[in-house]
Write a structure and sequence with these properties.
By secondary structure, the chain is mainly α. It has 15 helices and 2 strands. A hairpin with a 5-residue loop joins strand 1 and strand 2 (about 430). Helix 6 runs antiparallel to helix 10 and helix 10 (about 255-280) crosses helix 12.
């Protein structure tokens, strides 16, 4: 059995997550506003373009995952996809962040859609390698934690660069693009040089219908994906409504950046704790604890004192810490399930991860079509002080509904075996010794 990865190998594996996260943060938090306000395309149009791009991902992610599963080459199943994705991703990103003084809605939509596809072509095979790289079940959690730490570093870098140039957003985008380009090149170089070869299935690639049937027959996978979708939808509501919640309860948006940074730092700081807990108590039980902790914090939101910075800071720390568990533990569990399904003839990591990514993006799209229209219809965006009904509607979407979704996810996974997962012939989760 392969020895555990050393620090250099873990670094080489995780580094590529940083530019992907940095660009993802720009795409979610900053570029839409720039296109809508600075370039004059309007909030409605830009929102529609980005939602359409995300919905396109829901279709393309499983297809790209399946394509990488079926690829057979001298360089393995995943690396050719990563290089093709990088070659398309970097120039498309520059086209998006440096559009010139005017850009048509059609051109903007085409660039956004193409960029999302190129991002997936690079990211999904790379992430699938993380599921296949280690035969050691605990090390899969380590790999997911390293990847998550670099993702947080990328998100923080994006926020800091934009904050450093509040009146020159084009300059901030240019510096971000240069950093992303450099990190993609360095990340791919170190990945090829230092990350050890991963086991690539040989023989005939899996047929499309057979691959789809194989993964959806597995109750562990279906339960994990159901719980993941619920959790991600709740997280999307929290992220999407944080700025509005702060504006409503603190009378201004000056603290928004500080609170978001606190969430991100807490997420990174808590990763070693979740890693240790998962090794001692198991991944399923640890994620269950994180789901309960997050729900408990959200249930307390109605009694938080408006304008009380310390109370909300403590809330941000708790929520940020459980976000780390939500990012790492489902991915590590997915690696265990994928390993149990892999044979000498077929691997399904790409397709399984493709569905996971599609559900994640679907979860982040749906709340924008639910919470924002309801709150807007109630007049919460008209600038006046919020009334009692508006405040309770905001609290429901920001905290109470996400808490209910986390409890529903807990209910789904509570039947999963707390010990290391393996898949038996009848597709149930059963208890058994660790494969490592």
């Amino acid at each position: 059995m392969r020895p555990y990865l050393n620090i250099s190998q873990l670094f080489a594996y995780g580094l590529l997550s940083m530019p992907l996260s940095l660009s993802g943060t720009l795409l979610i938090a900053f570029i839409p506003t720039y296109y809508a306000i600075d370039l004059g395309l309007g909030l409605g149009l830009v929102g529609g373009l980005f939602v359409a791009g995300r919905l396109l991902d829901v279709i393309t992610d499983p297809l790209i995952g399946l394509g990488s599963d079926r690829t057979r080459s001298r360089y393995g199943a995943r690396l050719p996809w990563m290089f093709i994705g990088a070659l398309a991703f970097v120039p498309l990103l520059w086209l998006l962040i440096m559009p010139g003084e005017a850009i048509s809605p059609l051109r903007a939509g085409l660039i956004i859609g193409a960029l999302f596809v190129a991002y997936t072509v690079l990211d999904l095979p790379y992430s699938a390698i993380g599921l296949e790289l280690s035969p050691h079940r605990h090390e899969r959690t380590v790999l997911a934690s390293v990847k998550a730490a670099f993702q947080v570093a990328g998100a923080i870098s994006a926020a800091l660069i934009v904050a450093a140039f509040p009146d020159a957003i084009a300059r901030a985008f240019s510096l971000s693009g240069a950093l992303i380009t450099g990190l993609v090149i360095l990340g791919l170089f170190l990945f090829v040089r230092w990350v050890p070869p991963y086991p690539a299935p040989s023989g005939t690639p899996p047929r499309v219908k057979a691959a789809l049937a194989a993964i959806w027959r597995q109750k562990p996978y279906r339960r994990l994906m159901s719980a993941f979708l619920l959790t991600q939808t709740g997280s999307a509501l929290i992220f999407g409504l944080t700025a509005l919640f702060i504006l409503t309860n603190f009378g201004g948006g000056a603290l928004t950046g500080a609170f978001i940074l606190l969430v991100l730092v807490s997420s990174a700081a808590a990763l070693p704790l979740w890693l240790r807990a998962s090794r001692r108590f198991g991944k399923v039980r640890t994620w269950q604890a994180a789901l309960i902790l997050g729900a408990a914090a959200l249930w307390l939101v109605p009694i938080l004192t408006p304008g009380h910075i310390l109370q909300f800071a403590v809330f941000c720390i708790i929520v940020g810490s459980v976000f780390g568990a939500d990012a790492v533990l489902p991915t590590s569990l997915l690696a265990d399930i994928s390993d149990a399904m892999t044979t000498d003839q077929a691997g399904h990591a790409g397709l399984m991860l493709g569905y996971k990514n599609a559900l994640s993006k679907l979860g982040f799209v749906a709340p924008m079509g639910l919470a924002f229209p309801v709150l807007g219809a109630m007049g919460l965006d008209e600038g006046a002080s919020a009334n009692t009904a508006q405040l309770w509607a905001l609290i429901f979407f920001y905290a109470l509904l996400p808490a209910l979704l986390r409890m529903a996810a807990f209910t789904i996974i509570r039947r999963m075996d707390p010990s290391d997962i393996h898949i038996s012939e009848d597709s149930e989760i059963s208890e058994g010794p660790a494969a490592a």
